[in-house]
Amino acid sequence: MNLEDLPEEPEERCPAERREEEAAKVLERMWAHRSRRAFEEEDLPQKDLEDCVAAAQRASTSSFLQPYSVVVVRDPERKRRVYELCSQQQMILDAPVFLALCVDFHRAEKACRDQGKELAPIDLETLLIGCIDTSLFAQNLLLAAEAMGYGGCFVGAARNHPLELARVLGLPPKVFVLFGLVLGRPCDDPMPMPRLPLEAVLHREQYDLESVSAHLDAFDAQMRAFARRLNRELQARGAKKVNEDRGFRDRLAFRLSTEKRPSPRDRIESCLKNMGFLAEGEG
Ligand SMILES: Cc1cc2nc3c(=O)[nH]c(=O)nc-3n(C[C@H](O)[C@H](O)[C@H](O)COP(=O)(O)O)c2cc1C
């Protein structure tokens, strides 16, 4: 390739109508995030999707590996099969697109083989790299979509049946769906979910062990107040109310304690091994 054939500088490739750089706009956009789970029937044009994916690709990537791919599912029949494998979440059927965000080491394996080499076993560190980079790419993608007036919600349930989902999407070995993302023109208006107090996540110089209980107390109270406010809204709409007694501690224990409900995702490690990850080395 000649030097003059190289693609233009990234700033020049960013579509002119999207070149708005003020920090305030970016922060405002980030603050406006809510997971959106209901959508207009309107399609999401391929050009807009491509702009989102190209912007997402600007995310930092470990050692410049770019170990991810995204499979876009629009076909209603295939989307229905994805829906069946992802806890039958209605938003998957209703959104015009389902994106499967994949950790992808197939490309790396091909690159090694092309040079007469073998890809080393994908150990935990390499898997972490894949998950980190795919997540950075995915969050950038959602942010770009939100900036264009779309909305969406990630779908962790895409890890419920990894092997079956890989078959539906035609994934080669060493590629798996880390999570999904439904995208479209949103038509719901969910209340913004609160977040932990800043001081709970921002530590100065060293981890502040002393304050953990106080932050949990504060956020427990905030979550209960949030549930009361949410219930006023749900009641007005005649919708089912949420439990007002459940605080943040309850939520953490529900998902993470030894008493958590069994989940298909408990088998994720053996599924990953089946898909070419976390294989034992030769020695
Ligand atoms: C990796 C990941 C997987 C998620 N999976 C699901 C899911 O399967 N279903 C769902 O309704 N929401 C899912 N969510 C959305 C979270 O529930 C949501 O981000 C969280 O409750 C905070 O709400 P907010 O995004 O509106 O601020 C997921 C979020 C992430 C980051």
Short account of what is shown:
It is built from twelve helices and four strands, in the order αααβααβααβαβαααα. The protein is α+β, with helices and mostly antiparallel strands and 283 residues long.
Task: Explain what the structure shows.
The protein is an alpha+beta fold and 283 residues long. 44% of the residues lie in helices and 10% in strands. The protein folds into 2 domains: 18-189, NADH Oxidase; 198-256, no CATH class. The protein has helices spanning 10-13, 23-31, 46-56, 76-85, 90-94, 106-114, 124-147, 162-169, 198-201, 212-236, 248-256, 268-274, and strands at 68-73, 97-104, 151-155, 175-184. The longest helix has 25 residues, at 212-236. The mean pLDDT is 94. Flavin mononucleotide binds next to strand 3.
What's the helix and strand layout?
Layout: H1 10-13, H2 23-31, H3 46-56, E1 68-73, H4 76-85, H5 90-94, E2 97-104, H6 106-114, H7 124-147, E3 151-155, H8 162-169, E4 175-184, H9 198-201, H10 212-236, H11 248-256, H12 268-274
Antiparallel strand pairs: 1-2, 2-4, 3-4
Helix pairs in contact: 3-7, 4-8
The chain binds flavin mononucleotide.
Task: State Rg.
Answer: 21 Å
Low-confidence stretches: none
Please state how the strands of the largest beta sheet are arranged side by side. Answer: 1-2-4-3
Bound molecules: flavin mononucleotide
- Average per-residue pLDDT, rounded, comes to 94
Brief descriptors of the model:
single chain; 283 residues; alpha+beta; NADH Oxidase; 2 domains; four-stranded antiparallel beta sheet; 12 helices; globular; binds flavin mononucleotide
